[in-house]
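Changelog note: in this version the structure field was regenerated for every chain. One regenerated record is shown below for reference.
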Amino acid sequence: MKQLSGLDSAFVYFETATTPMHIGSLCIYDQSTAPGGVVGFKDIISFFDERLHKARAFRQRLVTVPMNLGHPYWIEDPEFDLEFHLRHIALPAPGDWRQLCILTARLLSRPLDMNRPLWEAWVIEGLNNVEGIPKNSFAIVSKIHHAAIDGISGAEIAAAVHGFSPDDEVEPPETPWTPDREPTSIEMLGRNLINDAKIPVRLGKLAYDGVQSLTRLATGLITKQIRLPGNAPRTRFNDNVSGHRVFDAVTFDLNEIKEIKASCEGATVNDVMLTICGGALRKYLASKEELPDKSLVAMAPVSIRQEDQRGDGGNLVSVLSIPIRSDIDDPLERLNAVHEESSEAKRFTFAAGPEVGMELAGFLPSTTTGLAVKAYGKLRLAEMIRPSFNTVITNVPVGKQTLYSMGSRMVAYYGLGPVFHGVGLFQSIIGYEDKISINVVSCRKMMPDPAFYCECLRESFEECRMGAREVSTDPA
């Protein structure tokens, strides 16, 4: 048994019927590379069964402390049933991209069963009319609770079921898997008492790290090397979310993104993607006559996972607050401004100490946090509290090398993430092979037209690309 950290537990407490807190992916596979050119559902079950030992999250489920007197624990589920977690479905003809997006959004809207290991994988057949995708391809929509993984550990779980060749073989487990016995209430309370005894030590570490952080912050503010992040303007995305989701995605050529990056000294690929998002949101909100004068602000999660923590599950992240300069029309001016904002956000987060937020989360009161979250939604406090962010934008590395699963070549990878009251737009940036995509998840009432927003993303990209080419051909 292992107790969840405060941050991991927070994602459990945030779980409601309208705010399911899972993340995941939509992956598309060309089964023509598999033996015989066909992958059956039984083959997929066997494939996953052989690899369950490669990721602990597959067979671990939650157990709670009586009366929520402490954070939950993970146990190896004694009633684990693989076929409960693997589902099979097909698109009706013609099996196009719009149908796939609608089905993905519906699956994403459904909460996970919190009494089982917190993941599902839906195998989707019938992709016969998706542009750029071979006919007879199939997709897998994977969902796993945010309490179990962050973006980096999620990529490592994806690696458990992918390899670099169609005939990739998996090494058997070193020891047989052993399920846990269901703990009694007395045992859970006893463990909680032991953990409570460690609180003074944890408080001492938090106080020490807090003093260090405050010193760095004060020095930075006095010397004007850093500045405090500001609040975000209110938009349609800063309201209570419904239980319905939309999904869509746009894919770009990575080399063209790098050409845009070269037009701004010191800029990164991530700066370019933030700039494209800023331009797209500018266009989208302007079309609704809702564009604020002040820049929209992105919550940008960043991993603080060390090398020796690579195999750990859960969340080891900090958050950057980055204005995406939706207030600037010129694309290259926006890119330069976003680069400066991103650098400033990194300096502030380093000064604040990215680990302090993780330590503070450990002291979230388990007995009241869940009630507070539910009250936040029921009382519609998102409408009353000034927002800090308008959207989540996260960059998840997948890699340039082609991946295979079940003998099938993965031809596309799209990211899925949660929205919640007050921040109803999630955008993930996924780089795979020589492509990079922006993947959009939102509340259906906030963004009823995701295809139009994707068109705004394409227009924003094209403006950045043309601006960069003008700079590269300018003789001055």
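Spot check on this record: The radius of gyration is 23 Å. The first strand starts at residue 2 and ends at 3.
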